[in-house]
Amino acid sequence: MTKYITSERLPELWARLADRGPLYLPVNEGTAVAFRAWEEGKEVNLEAVNSTVSPKEIFLPAWETYLKFERAGKKLALAPADANGLARPVTAFGLRPCDLRAIELLDLVFVEQDPPDELYTRRRKNTTIVALACSQPDPFCFCTAFGIEPTDAPGADVLAWKTGNRLFMEARTPRGEDWLEENSRLLQEAEGVEKPPPVESADFGLALEGLPENLKGRFEDPIWDQIYRSCLGCGICTYICPTCYCFDIQDYGHQEQGERFRCWDSCQFSHYTLTAGGNNPRPTRKERVRNRFLHKLQFYPERYEEFGCVGCGRCLRSCPVGIDMVSVIRALGGETVAR
Fold first, then answer.
1. How many CA atoms lie within 13 A of 125 on its CB side?
2. Which of 97, 103, 179, 165 is closest to 132 using CA atoms?
3. What pLDDT, in 10s, does the model give residues 144-179?
4. Mean pLDDT confidence for 53-64
5. Assuming Cys at both sites, which of 2, 72, 225, 314 could form a disulfide with 170, CB separation 3.0 to 4.6 Å?
6. DSSP labels for 244-280?
7. Distance (Å, whole) CA 329 – CA 327
8. Sign (positive/negative) of CA torsion 59, 324, 217, 270?
9. Nearest 5 degrees, angle CA 248-CA 286-CA 236?
10. Mean pLDDT of 207-218
11. DSSP secondary structure string, 87-104?
12. How does pLDDT run across 61-80, given as a tens digit for each residue?
């Protein structure tokens, strides 16, 4: 089932979706683009190849309450987080193929586990994903190195692509078919529609085959002394990365009442691995930088048989000192052509 909507009528579609439940779209925030709940008047940006911050926050919020506690004398009452908002249907509109693939990698961590993470799983099950095919590559993109097709998103409920002033939408799942049918009043039937034209994303000459196996004996490789040297420890790489999921759990409140919450953390921060006894297995930036890249390129593939990177290019764009996935893979010998 393929339908289309003209660009002029998109705000009507978004208003309709937002009436049913939260609608997340890439919107302009100053010079940045971020996925935010849609409100009339917000400037939606479907042209940006990648948002500044990934849409993982739709499913893994930067901060969320797990439970609330209250004490009366010697009695302690626990109440789970209010999950009413998680029951409403959600639409995530405009995710690029690389970001959708990143969500699927997060699923391996939060859903395909025993037990699964309840809050993440509820959000995932209640969200319809409308992916947006890329029409041109960003200079920093290298998703094809990880086997991702910029114009396709196999895990999407609906795949959208733009041709002229029309946005075509093709259902990929039964949920996607229902979604198109529910919004058919604003959509028109598309006949004889060509698929989105191919897009060539740079792979930067990266050679990934056999890389996880080759890294097994390189934990103490002197190359890490060179790679980490300029790192500032700012953690921006982990916050913008669509596949990073480090978090901390803390209690907030006082003796009578409070809450337990989860918030994003970063393996690049010194306190992340600091134990109560004062020991830290990653005391310097060297150990922390090494852990980040070995996790993406060795540890994650060993556990899930998938690389922990999707080639979105955000680290290339944002790291202030140029310690990004491409440069590190090259430093480790994972390239086909000498540079």
1. 12
2. 97
3. 999 999 999 999 999 999 998 999 999 999 999 999
4. 94
5. 2
6. ---EEEEEEE-SSEEEEEEEE--TTSGGGG--TTS--
7. 6
8. negative
9. 50
10. 94
11. GS-EEEEEE-HHHHHHHH
12. 999 998 898 988 888 888 88
Could you give the CA distance from residue 279 to residue 73 in angstroms, rounded to a whole number?
A: 36
Are 147 and 309 within 8 A, CB to CB?
A: no
Q: Rounded to an integer, what distance in angstroms lies between the CA atom of residue 57 and that of residue 61? A: 4
pLDDT tens-digit series, residues 96-134: 999 999 999 999 999 999 999 999 999 999 999 999 999
| 76, burial (CB in 10 Å: exposed 0-12, middle 13-18, buried 19+) | exposed
- The torsion region of residue 133 among left (phi > 0), alpha (psi -120 to 50) and beta comes to beta
Find the DSSP H helices in the chain. Answer: 10-20, 97-110, 118-125, 174-182, 211-214, 223-227, 236-240, 285-294, 300-304, 314-318, 325-331
Distance between CA atoms of 225 and 9, rounded to whole angstroms? 55
Token couple for 291: 């852990």
Could you tell me whether strands 158-163 and 2-6 are parallel, antiparallel, or unpaired per DSSP bridges? unpaired
Q: How far apart are CA 83 and CA 207, in angstroms?
A: 44
